[in-house]
């Protein structure tokens, strides 16, 4: 068995594609892409919040105070339009970002102590609605001024004025620490990257170990060797298990190094980005212990075994390399769904979800990063995932002993 294992490992090590998918991508590509995505997304969000918004306003004679507030607000630039009929075309052509239409009865409604309406035209077909939020902030500032002006005529004291404006004030005290808050964001994506990386790393070798040997005609030669079929299956399984687990562990190490590097940069007082989000990231990274990272790596062991058993079973069943590729490719979607389920609201780590494959591992990784892990659940997840991996390996061994599976062609 070990002879077959070492032979397959040596052949994979000589293959450049395997080295790229197993070592280079987990160590360099995935952490680099994740880091660049986080940097550019934060940069783009900040740029969108500070970008200049060209706008048009109609009926400003009915609300000169509101129109003047927009004119004085930093980041807004008024663009004249001929008529209201040009609003849609101007927005579509990116001449303006939004338009305000103030109706003629605006002043009369305010003086009659009735609610006035301002119509906002903008394109809402965007992922993050920055325009509406920025316009709403300006309008809310005007609302605050009008409320104070209306109540000042009642000769109220400052305390009475605060009561009239906000009878109940919500004083928020979050029980979540910085690690838990930031970890909730990072912990949701970490399982997706690790589990997908584990699957993709073992996918190409799996196709070669099963369907590839069928096409090359070397499978029959291997079956004629004085080695039990169970040993052959176990050797091929260990190859895929090693490749998948090694890829995931390398990814854990490289991403940990990237996070520690980012946290070290953010704590440097000479770096301007040491504020807000980067400082929170630094606090979370320094709070994660080596034991937590070891438990994350430990959960990858039975997960890699599950992927190895499924991949080898499909590859053995396939008639050709092409058929194996078509059968194995949808596994990425099968892996994606339970992993993404861990990020849905209401899906929390409990005794029920601890039994759901992949979702339980994703939830446990998120809890470990947040620092809120129930270690009793960790033992249950590890045990249930190991049992599933063992059952799938037994199924793969039985599958390999069937002649109608091995020689479908």
UniProtKB/TrEMBL annotation:
<keyword id="KW-0812">Transmembrane</keyword>
<feature type="transmembrane region" description="Helical">
    <location>
        <begin position="294"/>
        <end position="318"/>
    </location>
</feature>
<feature type="transmembrane region" description="Helical">
    <location>
        <begin position="375"/>
        <end position="400"/>
    </location>
</feature>
<feature type="domain" description="ABC-2 type transporter transmembrane">
    <location>
        <begin position="16"/>
        <end position="393"/>
    </location>
</feature>
<feature type="transmembrane region" description="Helical">
    <location>
        <begin position="227"/>
        <end position="250"/>
    </location>
</feature>
<keyword id="KW-1133">Transmembrane helix</keyword>
<feature type="transmembrane region" description="Helical">
    <location>
        <begin position="20"/>
        <end position="40"/>
    </location>
</feature>
<feature type="transmembrane region" description="Helical">
    <location>
        <begin position="330"/>
        <end position="355"/>
    </location>
</feature>
<feature type="transmembrane region" description="Helical">
    <location>
        <begin position="182"/>
        <end position="207"/>
    </location>
</feature>
<keyword id="KW-0472">Membrane</keyword>
<dbReference type="InterPro" id="IPR013525">
    <property type="entry name" value="ABC2_TM"/>
</dbReference>
<dbReference type="GO" id="GO:0140359">
    <property type="term" value="F:ABC-type transporter activity"/>
</dbReference>
<dbReference type="Pfam" id="PF12698">
    <property type="entry name" value="ABC2_membrane_3"/>
</dbReference>
<protein>
    <submittedName>
        <fullName>ABC transporter permease subunit</fullName>
    </submittedName>
</protein>
<dbReference type="GO" id="GO:0016020">
    <property type="term" value="C:membrane"/>
</dbReference>
<feature type="transmembrane region" description="Helical">
    <location>
        <begin position="257"/>
        <end position="274"/>
    </location>
</feature>
């Amino acid at each position: 068995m070990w002879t077959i294992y070492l032979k397959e490992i040596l052949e994979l090590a000589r293959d450049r594609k395997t080295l790229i998918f197993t070592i280079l991508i987990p160590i360099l590509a995935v952490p680099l892409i994740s880091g660049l995505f986080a940097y550019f997304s934060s940069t783009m969000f900040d740029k969108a919040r500070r970008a200049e918004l060209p706008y048009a306003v109609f009926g400003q004679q009915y609300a000169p105070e509101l129109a003047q507030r927009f004119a004085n607000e930093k980041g807004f630039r008024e663009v004249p339009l001929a008529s209201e009929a040009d609003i849609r075309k101007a927005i579509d052509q990116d001449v303006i970002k939004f338009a305000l239409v103030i109706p003629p009865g605006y002043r009369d409604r305010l003086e009659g102590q009735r609610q006035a309406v301002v119509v906002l035209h903008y394109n809402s077909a965007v992922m993050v609605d920055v325009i509406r939020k920025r316009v709403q902030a300006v309008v809310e500032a005007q609302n605050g001024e009008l409320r104070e002006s209306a109540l000042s005529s009642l000769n109220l004291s400052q305390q009475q004025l605060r009561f009239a404006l906000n009878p109940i004030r919500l004083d928020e005290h979050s029980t979540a620490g910085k690690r838990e808050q930031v970890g909730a964001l990072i912990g949701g994506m970490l399982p997706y990257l690790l589990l997908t990386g584990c699957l993709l790393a073992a996918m190409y070798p799996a196709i070669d170990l099963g369907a590839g040997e069928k096409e090359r005609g070397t499978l029959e030669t291997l079956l004629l060797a004085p080695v039990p079929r169970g040993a052959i299956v176990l050797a091929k399984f260990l190859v895929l298990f090693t490749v998948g687990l090694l890829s995931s562990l390398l990814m854990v190490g490289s991403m940990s190094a990237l996070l520690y590097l980012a946290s070290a940069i953010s704590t440097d007082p000479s770096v301007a980005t040491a504020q807000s989000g980067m400082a929170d990231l630094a606090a979370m990274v320094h709070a994660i212990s080596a034991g937590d990272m070891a438990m994350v790596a430990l959960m990858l062991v039975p997960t890699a075994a599950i992927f190895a058993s499924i991949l080898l079973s499909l590859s053995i069943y396939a008639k050709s390399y092409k058929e194996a590729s078509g059968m194995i490719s949808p596994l990425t979607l099968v892996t994606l769904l339970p992993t993404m389920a861990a990020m849905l609201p209401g899906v929390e780590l409990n005794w029920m979800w601890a039994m759901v494959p992949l979702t339980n591992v994703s939830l446990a990784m998120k809890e470990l990063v947040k620092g809120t892990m129930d270690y009793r659940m960790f033992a249950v997840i590890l045990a249930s995932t190991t049992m599933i991996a063992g059952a799938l390996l037994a199924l793969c061994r039985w599958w390999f002993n069937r002649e109608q599976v091995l020689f479908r062609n």
